[in-house]
Amino acid sequence: CSCTARQGSSGINAEYGGTKSEKKLKKKSRHSSRRRSRIIDYLDTDIATDKLEEDITCQGCHKKFTFGRVPKILHCLHTLCSECISVTLMLSDEKNKVKCAMCEVFSAGKNAESFRTQSYIQILSEIASCYEGQLNESLHCIGCTNVAGLRCLTCNENYCQEHTDFHVRSRATSHHKVLSFKQILNTPLLISTIKREEHCPTHTNKLMEFFCFTCRLPLCTACALAQHKDCLYEELGTAITTLKQKFENLKPAFNRKQYNLKKADSALDAAQKQVDGELGHSMAGLSDTMDRIMRTLRQREASINHHIEDHRKEGQGELRVHESVLEERIANIESGVDFVDTVFEFWSPIEVLSMEHDILERLSELAGDGGGSSEEIKPKPFELPPDTEGNVVDAISTMHNVALAKATSNVSEEEVGEKGDIAEKEI
């Protein structure tokens, strides 16, 4: 009998660890237990707040990105909130142009919606807001009234621990990635592991698989064959590989530029030390000279001190200007490279290809920006007024001779006065 055979088989399986379904259930239970253990351990760690605060804060108004303050990408690849862009467009003298608060480069656009949304920062800001809601117990699970502390990155829904266990045990959602808010904020790269698929608005059952470079639009297979036969388009994977290669070709220029700027920055530091060293040397020489003159020479000492201080301020002021320019260039290059790395890491191919022109144009500007040579930065050497020491020594000698002559009465009062006037002029 087949029933007997099945019962016998079940008995054997039970004796050696249970049926296949029971083993699978135990395996899931162990997996769920390990997952809960990892989550509990992770909740005891601290969030890297400095980098997180910088990422989710608008550099224009210094407020966090929210639903009403959507992060938007300017043509210089910096990010401002939609509120800042709207206010800038309203108050700016330049029509339909937004001035970046960081690099002061203008970006053309009629309104905030004409700029692409920074989806990675938007998701990160939302997760940070959810974590804040978890801490003040205002964020509730989608399935009950318990406080939510975990997020399904596949469904973009928040769960409590009980519904999370159900979610990961369910056959339909067992492959979904569910993590705590804290874990996501500590490791933002986890966001990039979620594959975001976009469907064609015309053929809703088909995925976007191509990108049309003629129309600058993503396409599905049906649209490519029917409406874009005469256009230049490529498969998304091929197109993104080509774009990555273009960026790799630009990287040597970035590296050279960054090296030259850092070298110039090091030259600035050396020049700053040189100015300080020359100041100390000049002050020491001046002090040594002043030690050899009479009390009546203090006025001259103050004048020379004032001259030296003016020179120091002038030299340091010039160096600070150079240093500020170099730091700004370095920051722009690093920001541009970091942005492109983030784009390829976190954006979908469609988002990347839509920004290809702006990315390549901005990176080419940064790579070809002139200046940055350390040979251009040389502080002016400090020099005492000509023959200062000689004049002082001559003045002392003259006054000494006058004093001796007066003491011995070998000269008249008129001659003493004349020689005293000569000494004062030399001083």
Question: Your description of this structure?
Answer:
The chain has 427 residues and is mainly alpha-helical. The chain is built from 14 helices and ten strands.
Helical content (DSSP H or I, runs of 4+): 55-70%
Structural class: mainly alpha
N→C terminal distance: 128 Å
Q: How much is the radius of gyration in Å?
A: 37 Å
Spatial strand order of the main sheet = 6-5-7
Shape: elongated
Number of strands: 10
Order of secondary-structure elements: HHHEEHEEHEEHEHEEHEHHHHHH
* Quaternary form: single chain
- Pick out the low-confidence regions: 1-45, 406-411
Largest sheet: 3 strands, antiparallel
Beta-strand content estimate: 5-15%
Q: Report the average pLDDT across residues.
A: 75
Count of DSSP helices? Answer: 14
Please render the helix and strand layout as text:
Blueprint: H1 2-15, H2 20-42, H3 49-55, E1 71-73, E2 79-81, H4 82-91, E3 97-99, E4 106-108, H5 119-135, E5 150-152, E6 157-159, H6 161-169, E7 178-180, H7 181-186, E8 210-212, E9 217-219, H8 221-226, E10 233-235, H9 236-290, H10 298-346, H11 349-354, H12 356-368, H13 388-408, H14 413-426
Helix pairs in contact: 2-6, 9-10, 9-12, 10-12, 13-14
Task: Sum up the structure in keywords.
single chain; 427 residues; mainly alpha; three-stranded antiparallel sheet; disordered N terminus
Describe the structure concisely for a colleague.
The protein has 427 residues and is mostly helical. It is built from 14 helices and ten strands.
